[in-house]
Amino acid sequence: MDRQIVCFAIPSLDIALARLTDSSLRTRPLVIAPLNNPRTLLREVSREAEQEGVRVGMPLTLARRLCPSLRVRPPDLPRAETADASLRTVIRRYAPTWEPVHPGAVMMDVTGTTRLFGAACDVAATVQQEIVTRYRLEGVAGVGSNKLVAQTAASLIEPSELCDVRQGSERLFMSPLSVHSLPGIHRPCMRTVLKRLDDLNLRSLGDIAESPLDALEIVLGNYAGQLSRWAQGIDPTPVLPPVSHPSMDETIVLEPDEVDDALLWGRLADSLQRLCRTLRHQRRMCNGLSLTLRYSDHREVTTTARVIPDTCWEIDISGSLQHLFQRAFRRRIRLRLMTLSLTGLNDFAEQGTLFDDRPPGEQTTRNRAQRLALALDRLHERFGEQAIRYGRRR
């Protein structure tokens, strides 16, 4: 059975949402960038701003010089997440398998659903119309026999348009396109590949598809085979549904923004104690740890660590958390938000060992910390969350 893949996306989601809220921005040059730092880089650029020479990744100060009438709006992550969730509620009704690409973009595998919803292009048109009717957001839709062709087709058209690449015409469709039109080709790891292709004057995908594979391997090494397949419109990768990882998290909103290391660590220690207390109450353990810091200029940094063995005790996690905090908090800019997540949750099953390799002093310290944690659990349950809090000695 031939595969039928649909890529549906809302181009520049934050810009579309900003214009949906403020109708005066619909015809104005608009960019999305943090407002607190003049050196920040642009994240999204509207068509009107592009006509003035403004590009994604450009410093905001340079963009203002190129386009004095430029309007700037900060990214709104909660609103984008809400819009993305709304989009997925529509997608689920038509696609048995779907894969999130990025906020506002979804890959759908509608193979075998022809009798239910019609051909893949009909499904794409139906999704487009429903999104416009319900949320007033215009999207693009690319249809193809694989993910690469569908995503490439969606990137070449305007909002509310649909591009259907029929089975067997993949190479013909990809051949005239520039190498730079490939999804993901602008990742840092591909810079050397792009430079070598430019040196060889291989500008189009047709040029690459017609080049002998052994000659490409001499120049591009391990990237040659994959790039040759892409140039011919070949992509066997499946549409992978989102994987649900059991986790527990807590977000700390800092009002006002804060830069004091000791105060921030105290807030994290309080959060860790609450999460571990919940784990013990639910008879669960975790094997992973994640910390996300959002600065006042809206830049986010996420660090992760593995927790071995699985545990629900603060003493086993606090050292890793402190290390993550030191890795993430490298910029001397105030923080606006911190999110602590305990991941890989599973049922409580702590098993003793016949040969404990911990030094006697360390084992004694761990036992005392566990008894203290249980005592604090009882105090918090009886007297409330603010009864006891972490502090520091002067």
From TrEMBL:
GO MF term set: DNA-directed DNA polymerase activity
Domain of life (superkingdom): Bacteria
Family: Belongs to the DNA polymerase type-Y family.
Naturally occurring in which organism (per UniProt): Nitrospira defluvii
SUPFAM superfamilies: DNA/RNA polymerases (SSF56672), Lesion bypass DNA polymerase (Y-family), little finger domain (SSF100879)
Protein name: DNA polymerase IV
Positions of the UmuC domain: 5-186
Pfam annotation, one family: IMS_C
Keyword Glycoprotein belongs to the record: no
Keyword vocabulary terms for this entry: Nucleotidyltransferase, Transferase
Entry's EC annotation: 2.7.7.7
InterPro entries noted in UniProt: DNA/RNA_pol_sf (IPR043502), DNA_pol_Y-fam_lit_finger_sf (IPR036775), DNA_pol_Y-fam_little_finger (IPR017961), DNA_polymerase-Y (IPR050116), Rev_trsase/Diguanyl_cyclase (IPR043128), UmuC (IPR001126)
Enzyme class: transferase
